[in-house]
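Quick one - inputs below.
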Amino acid sequence: MTGDRPAAPAYRKPVLTLSNVGLYAAIVALSAFFLFPIYVIFLVAFTPTKYTLFAGRPPLIPPALTWSNLQAGLTGANSPFLPSMYLSLEIAFLVGALAIAIGIPTAYGLSRLGSRLAYGLTTVLFIVNMVPSITIAIPITVPFIKAGLYGSPISIGLTQELLALPMTVFLLVGAFQGLPRDLENQARVDGAGRMRAVYGNLVPLIVPALIAAFLLSWMLSWDESTFALILYNPATSATLPVNIFLAFTGRGNPAVGVAFSCVATIPVIILTVVLQRYLKGEDLAAGVRG
Amino acid sequence: MTAKIEFDRVTKRFGNKLVADDVSFEVDAGEFFVILGPSGEGKSTFLRMIAGIEPVDAGSIRIDGVDVTYLPPNKRNVAMVFQNYALYPNMNVYRNIAFPLKMQYFPASEIEPKVREVARTLGITEILQRRVNQISGGQQQRVALARAIVRSPSLFLLDEPLSNLDARVRFTARAELKKIQRDLGQTFLFVTHDQKEAEVLSDRTGVVHQGRFEQIGPFSDLYERPATRWIGDFVGDVPMNYFPTHEAGSTGELGFRPEWADLSDQGNYEATVQVTERVGDFAYLLCTMANGWRVYLRTIRNVSTGSAVRFNVLRHVFFPKSQPDDGETGAKAEPKTP
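Output:
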């Protein structure tokens, strides 16, 4: 990988002029709009509850800061935090990994069918996603429960996979179809079996799509609460979204919910930052002409 | 080892389009065989069927007497250079060339000297560590060729490997290719739509038209003795001339190339020059005859537009009128010298 790469085009430093002041103002306003809910999460998490959850008019600027909410939520006696976090992570990685493992052969197969047939079949996969998950959750979870598959990470992961897999397959079919067909042919002629050609020559070229699919599946699972709520075992532990839901409803402790909400954002941010450099994929572009 | 290829009544269709219509032909071991034809005739499909990446609808293909019709591509020991070179973008030049050896489980200690040697032969040692998208088209073509050569296959399939090159690079690449084939002594099957390439490279050329080989033979035969009128039109820079005629009891057409006619004042035919085109030493004359026939002539003299010329046809090819229902591509041409 020696250099010789063409220099990046000269980057022009943006200048704050009268004409683009409006643009920047709009960007700031839009960012503020999207970041506000996250601000509220952190506000509630780090402000004594008497100013927020138990106040008639909670202030937007915290009058005082405290760690006690987080301490109570995360390390307090009987706090479900650690097992819950662990369960959520376990399921999220399971869903992401399974989506990739099943998605690659499925998408490869679909990409080798005629494009009309491939799109037809991919659409069929999406039927589960088209129906609101609360409607379809019961018919899906009943056989799981009958089979004794509830409460375990595998059972929750498998139901969430129903939502993650179509999206993954859709992404990967597009990625496979974007590769020149002759790359696979060349590998086959050069002596590679089909498995080797697919996993050794094609899959490395769609790494950005794989990362994107993994991230989306992971986040879908991290976020998913319908299946996780129906299939969780109260005797052991529930996922983070379920615990947050339980904390804010019924007899839960809202401070715990807030602390969980606050902490739940962190793994997503870490994972995205770690994986985003693979998302660019500029190194893998081109190389094949025509 | 060098391989002989046999097509035995091979048929291949894409939808309604017949790409190979009951085709049988042989390529001899060590031969440079060019498949020539206009774009869109499915020439590449012949290579793809030999390589095993396109299934055959009917018939069989044998390489060195072994029926490979249903063998997967990785079991055929055939090297192929695709039109777009299909270099692996995730590997550098070295790893691209080493790939076929790796697939045959050569140890790394044996792979390295082989890759270096073939790189030296093709003059690409300096770029071995480069990424394949950082090298020029000519270099990409050499890398693709190196990857084909390195594994010492018995058969090379090349699908228009020169068509993506600039005119000057193409000229040298063409000469190099011929030298490589002669040095290796291996069977080469080369697909092109460029008759110059067929003329320069081939031992024999097969011209594909409507799913059949219209004619197979040394390129000079295609030019001098076209089997059908279609070949006469397709091969050569200037179209042939055709006069309706009777010969040997059958009606048909008499075909002759411009240089087979001789301008002379005692000529049997008379024509009026409509257009003159000077190409190098020669002038091509587009003329019309009194009965309305158009004829191309060639001369080294200066002839002005509008003047009358007389000429004799020194040599011609007779194309019998094909029967409307025989479906054959036409009878063999009989070269005649009156």
